[in-house]
Design brief:
By secondary structure, the chain is an alpha/beta fold. The protein contains 13 helices and twelve strands. The strands form two sheets. It has a six-stranded parallel beta sheet with strand order 2-1-3-4-5-6, sandwiched between helices.
Amino acid sequence: MDLNKSILWVFSHPNPSSIPSYVVSGILPADYLNIQKIIFLKNHDPKEILIRFNPKLIIINKAMHNKVANLANSAKELNIKVISVFDDWYFIKPETKGIQLRFIDNLKLANYSNNIVVKTQTAADIIYKHTGLKAEIISDCLRYVSKKSISNINYPFKISWFGLDTNHDTLEFGIREILKYDFKVNLKIITNKLEKIRIRLGSLNLKNISLEFIEWNKEMDKEVLKTDIVIIPYLNDHKRIVKSYNRIIDSISLGRFTIISDLSHLRKFKNYCFLGNIGAGLKWAKENNILAIEKVIKGVKFVQNNYDVPSISMEWKKIIEQTLKK
């Protein structure tokens, strides 16, 4: 089957490459499998697009507006198969009316779909609990790969944190954990909305922590490679338990010692990074430099063998073929 002519991979944001989750769960596997990519915006006519391209199946990445369900419904009417990808569908206590409406649209989209895909088993379990719908699990793939891992962890610590502004609260949480240990730290913060995070962290007594703010960009891995450690703190809440592993696997793949909060769904990475209090992780690395480097070396091999673009793309190819047969 010619996937390029038979399949459309749909993104509902005007600049898909600016959305990290779109890159690692859509753009990279679509490019590897030579699948056509299209952008579907609110003002587009769903039937016109489907008739013009005449696909056998469409893959809809995370819906960014409420017209995406209309596209799936039109596909169903035209006997076109639909696979929908869901990120951040956590059901519990949506904070705003906009998110609440998005969750309602998610349910419509899921019901119009022949298959739904999520990034983790935890996310699949939560969707099944609330809807009775069974989801396939395909992880995000690696975006960044480094051929050179660290060979030593220096002190004062050279640390990086990267993420979009929706994760700023977790960064503050992680910094507060570091402050309890009074370490000397040079911390690169790579994110969007820099003024927002400057204001958020401005009230903290940072003691021996110096901050460098860097605007999020596609080549942010070059900044991460200037550090020895990546921290990925998580709050133990309903939003974080459905998150993908993309920041974790990219950090490990870049050959940095990675410290992440100890949440149950992240324990599959315990042999390749430190799970727990961020400050405690720094203390452990300082006292166990050789063991920390061993974790880095094992981690690079693990993620690059299991989350590389070809491996994840083959999982997508399998799901596509199964869905076409339904």
